[in-house]
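Incident log, structure service

09:12 report received: a user says their structure output differs between two submissions of the same chain.
09:20 pulled the input from the user's history:
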Amino acid sequence: MNVKESNRIKEFRQLEKEVRGSEGYLIIGIDVAKDNHHAFFGTATGKTLLRRLIFENSIDGFEKLHAHMEAVKVKHCLEKVVFGLEPTADYHKPLAEYLIKCGHNVVPENTG
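09:34 re-ran on a clean worker, output below:
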């Protein structure tokens, strides 16, 4: 394992500790697919906020996700967001890049 990978794992574990049980985080899990992604919005305490949001694997779809995320954050007074993505082939890469450029924490589902 190289230094970059080691640092990434340390950062992930620190984020995991911070999120676990926190009432200030919005957790968005995304099932990635070729054409459409499915998102689940919930809290670290187990509360479901939005069961399913379907959005396209395109910039318009990413903006739809982002708008829903902002609305849910405001409605439920949540401060921070973590996105969990299921890495599927290369279909997750444009979405992950978009979210990272927007300044969000993005965690691949198989990390850790």
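09:41 both user submissions now match this output. Likely a transient worker issue. Closing.
09:42 reviewer note: The mean pLDDT is 87. The first helix runs from residue 3 to 19.
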